[in-house]
Amino acid sequence: MQRAERPAESAGQGLRAALAAAFVKLSPQHIIKNPVMAVVWAGTLATGAATLAGLASPGFGWAVTGILFFTVLFGNYAEAVAESRGRGQAASLRRARKDLMARRIDAQGHEESVPAAELRPGDLVLVEAGQLVPADGEIEQGLATINEAAVTGESAPVLREAGTDRSGVIGGTQVLSDRIVVRVTAEPGHSFLDRMIALVEGSNRQKTPNEIALGILLMVMTLTFAIVVATLPFIGGFVGVEVNLVLLIALLVCLIPTTIGGLLPAIGIAGMNRALQANVLAKSGKAVEVAGDVDVLLLDKTGTITHGDRQATAFHAMPGVDGALLRQAALLASLADPTPEGKSVVRLAREKGAQEAQDMDPQGARFVPFSAQTRMSGVDLGERVIRKGALAAIAAHVQSLGGQVPAEIEARAAQVARSGATPLVVSDGRQALGVIELSDVIKHGIRERFARLRGMGIKTVMITGDNKLTAAHIAAEAGVDDYIAEARPEDKLARIRAEQAEGRLVAMVGDGTNDAPALAQADIGLAMNSGTQAAKEAGNMVDLDSDPTKLLAVVEIGKQQLITRGALTTFSLANDVSKYFAILPALFAVAIPQMAALNVMQLSSPSSAVLSALIFNAVIIPLLIPLALRGVRFKPASATELLRNNMLVYGLGGLVLPFIAIKLIDIVLSALFSL
Ligand SMILES: Nc1ncnc2c1ncn2[C@@H]1O[C@H](COP(=O)(O)OP(=O)(O)OP(=O)(O)O)[C@@H](O)[C@H]1O
Ligand SMILES: [K+]
Ligand SMILES: [Mg+2]
Known about the structure:
- By secondary structure, the chain is α+β, with helices and mostly antiparallel strands.
- Helices cover 52% and strands 16% of the residues.
- β16 (422-428) and β17 (431-439) form a beta hairpin.
- It is elongated and about 110 Å long.
- Bound molecules: adenosine-5'-triphosphate, potassium ion and magnesium ion.
- Residues 302, 465, 512 line the site of magnesium ion.
């Protein structure tokens, strides 16, 4: 499948804009949101003032001031770069949101041309091949192929059809064939695209609980170090050493967690962007991150594990029942059934020679639509009651009319089900006539994906309205861990609640209106973009590609975000410890010669030591921006394993790297400036 590139700004343009944004973010209202950086910014101003007041030599004072300023700027820049990526995507989305004219149809069926901005939920609009869909909605009549590239970046046409779980259309997408009547579902200004734009621009980015907790921890650490450093002059007073203000601020900045403080916002934004690159629209960053901790995944069968295009492939008439009679009844029961199942029954019955009966009077016919509750559909022709549906449903129905489903039918239905197909039993009055075989195909590669989920410790549960035997067959073939059959929508909801009550985090993938309650209840509700509006509203993520196994990608992105934040935090804190040992001997070396014993790094001079540590402290932020944006490399593994590896790499690396880097910077500085 060809993925049409979403137009984005050129890289150079984006980086220049990010640099400008980094300066704008120096404003007090913005910087205060990042307490660690706010302290560095205040320190910058203080060292500047101290140098002006002659408290430090101008060369050293201004050098420290300059380095501190760049530290703040680099932190802002990291956030701005992450944001600018989203902005490029927002710009291309905005191009898709055009001022369109809509062909609105009134109650009398008259058509009038109105601006799309005037459309209200409930309005009916006509869209024909070549035209753009003027607003978000659901197809009320007809079916069409649609090009959604403007929204999804995916240029392959998709089929959308009234009365199915694939009836949703998005404003701004183009109808390629046929003609549809769409019922508008979105208020002007609150369309799918509007919300996407707001999200990627980060205007309503909410911090995730983990991010908030870490933010508080960093703030407390900063405060603690500030208090410790503030007491140093008094301690110095006791031992007769005067500690310089500029040096104190330099020490403070080295100690407080500036690296993670500067990169934290970028990590959060990057997670959202990565989700969007995977064509998943998360309603919040929290949703993405929670996905990293999912324990159980519920999926429905039809359309999720299988292609969902269940086709009638055979009629099995009961002994003593004429095959033509069965096909005739099946045809009548399906004529007004808009589901893919219903249509395929009509097609197969006609292929096999069934015709609408002469005695069929459309006036006297009352069609009974399929529902997931009743699990059957059919038609009442005067006194004649024809139904087709799940075996259990038809058995109950026939029994209520005083009949009995014969054992042969049960056996045949079981046989069909054991092969993985879905049996529909057809009844005319109190007599069961036979079985329709509906075949569906399991999606390619789904087994491997479930295996991968299992590798990450996630349990998969298939939950289907279909019968036990079919469910068991498909479950085994697809490789899910568990399944629930004959589930009604409320059963899906109950299962999610039960899992949650046991303290598990539950993800649900679905597309139908009857999945909506479950999607809303689940911690992660991933709705298919092709699905109904209700499903999309209820979930907290929408997959633009309508690929149920996309949850795998979402889980990986969430895990990666958690791991990246953890790794960079570890690295940052380990770094600060090392910087402390580099800079502390320098502070007291002159006054207390014994401190020289601590001067393991043998830096060329106290000022060079301080400047080297500060320079390292500043440049490590931009150096880590690519890692913060891309995320730490991630392989499916258990949480403890990942933790151990990261502690080793980022903890140990964070401890060792500063000693080497600061020593190198010191050598260069002393050579250049003979410090
Ligand atoms: N158009 C229809 N007319 C009559 N019966 C149907 C029709 N479509 C499905 N059924 C029967 O109702 C059952 C339940 O259908 P439902 O759509 O709720 O679940 P499902 O599609 O089988 O599974 P899933 O929940 O995984 O999508 C089906 O297994 C089938 O026996
Ligand atoms: K620091
Ligand atoms: Mg279904």
